[in-house]
Amino acid sequence: MTVLGLANPQIAAVLWLLLGILFAVAEGVSVQLIAVWFALGAAGAAITAMFGAPFLVQFIVFIVLSVATLAATRPLLKSKLLVHKVKTNADRVIDAIGVVQETIDNDLAKGRVSVGGLGWTARSSDGSVIEQGSKVKVTAIEGVKVIVERYVQPSADAEQ
Q1: Which CATH architecture has domain 91-151?
Q2: Domain spans, the chain
Q3: What are the residues whose beta carbons fall under 8 Å from the beta carbon of 88, sequence distance 6 or more?
């Protein structure tokens, strides 16, 4: 096959190596564990090209090596390189206990709570009115509002 000089083993090997370099650069830019296996497949195809294998064999080596290394290593690498989500300041108030500063009434669209020293607009999760001074537990955040429910402190009798 003379497409792009692929009949010449040296030219084919150089083209496969260039393709491998492009895949490696793409992997370096994306850091998503997507292209590294194709870079390895291209290196394998370049080796077969240097030995004078036909283009079809080179392409098959490229595909097989890429898929095999992908299947063998990606799940392991993804689990080892898993980035754990760090809670942001807003996420930290979920499950926190706060105090109602202004009576919470969803029908009147009013209510404020203090959680961790910060004031938040609040709504009750079940639609009930929660009086000022009550303790509440934050169950969710919706935009700039916290969704709360009445906090019932566990009694000492319940632990026995």
Answers
A1: Beta Barrel (2.40)
A2: 3-80, 91-151
A3: none
